[in-house]
Each structure stands twice: as C-alpha cells, then as structure tokens.
Design goal:
This protein has 157 residues and is mainly α. The protein contains five helices and three strands, in the order E-H-H-E-E-H-H-H.
C-alpha cells in the first residue's frame, strides 16, 4: 500500500473532477474496466492521471452507446498498444496489428454513432423549432382574440 501522494487522487476528488458518481466509478472497477493504481493505508482507492484518463474515456464512450464489453475491448487494445510503445519485450507485431485494427474499428464505429446522434439532434432541434412556432402562433391568436385551437392550421407536423 502506498501513502497518498501528489500524483494520486482519492475517489471523491476523481468523481468530482470528471463528473461521475462514486458508485459509477466503483462499478467500473467491479466489472474490470478500471482499477485504482494504489490504496491508501486506510484502504481508500487512489487513482493516477492514467487511471483518470481511462475513466474519462469510458465516460466519453457512454453517450455513443458502447456496451461494457466494447469498452473493455477498446481499453485492452489501447493497453496492448501502450505496452508495445514502452516495453521492448511487449506484444509481437501480430498482437500490435490486431490491436491497431480494433482501434480503427472503434474509430469507424464512433464516427458512425456520432453521425446518427447528429441526425437525431437535427430532428430534435426541428421539433423544438416547430414547437416554438406553434407557441408563437397560439400567443398571437390569444392576443388578437381569435381561437386558433380549432383552426386546423397547426405548425406542428
């Protein structure tokens, strides 16, 4: 067990910094996505910048709908590539190539999911614009004393 140092952050500080709940961070540990690099004398989880970056990556994958297994696969690929960069005895060319291929597949999947989210956002913004228009139309009708509720001219599709 290491003592709390400047390079380590406790779980509460990490949670506040990246906007995840303590429960979520503990859950990600439980399912094997992230493991604190150390524990304090009292057993508190201690996280390094590398651990925090891993949690931030997981958080960014969430809105794109990646499943836990997909997150784990991407993290494993990144770990393999990182190990190859720092360890002369690291993964062989085939392992590195496979990890790079997985990384490339995730890049494509992330971009496709971003496109789908942009399409959904455009549809949602169009709906909000239509609602704004309908509110204005109804407000004008109320101010003018007309009953626009039965006019059949709603701006909503």
């Amino acid at each position: 067990m290491r003592a709390l140092g400047l390079q380590h952050k406790q779980i509460g500080e990490v949670a506040e910094r990246i906007g995840l709940s303590l429960r979520t961070i503990r859950y990600y540990e439980e399912v094997g996505l992230v493991t604190p690099s150390a524990r304090s004398q009292g057993g508190f989880r201690l996280y390094t910048e590398s651990d925090i970056a891993r949690l931030q990556l997981i958080k960014r994958m969430k809105p794109l709908g990646f499943a836990l297994d997909e997150m784990r696969s991407l993290l494993d690929a990144l770990d393999t590539l990182d190990a190859a960069g720092t360890d002369r005895e690291g993964p062989d060319g085939a392992s590195r190539g496979a990890a790079l291929e997985r990384l490339s597949m995730f890049e494509t999947a992330a971009e496709e999911r971003c496109v789908a989210l942009r399409d959904q956002l455009a549809m949602a913004e169009e709906f909000a614009d239509n609602l704004r228009g309908e509110v204005r139309r109804q407000q004008r009708g109320i101010r003018s004393g007309r009953d626009v509720s039965h006019s059949g001219r709603s701006t909503l599709p």
